[in-house]
TrEMBL record:
Protein name from the UniProt record: Protein containing Carbamoyl phosphate synthase, large subunit
Taxonomic source organism: mine drainage metagenome
UniProt keyword annotation of Ligase present: yes
Keywords assigned: Ligase
Pfam family of the protein (one): CPSase_L_D1
Ribonucleoprotein found in the keyword field: no
Length: 42
């Protein structure tokens, strides 16, 4: 999900409450799509 054609912004942060709160406060996104695991996770 690092392709700029697929997302407005890409964050490489841990999936912790604190990290997600920072993203929500700064960008006010409509949605969050957390992914992990590389090709296997697709």
């Amino acid at each position: 999900m690092t392709d700029p054609d697929l997302a407005d912004r890409t964050y490489m942060v841990p999936l912790t409450v604190e990290a997600l709160e920072r993203v929500l406060l700064v960008d006010r996104p409509d949605a969050i799509l957390p992914t992990m695991g590389g090709q296997t996770a697709l």
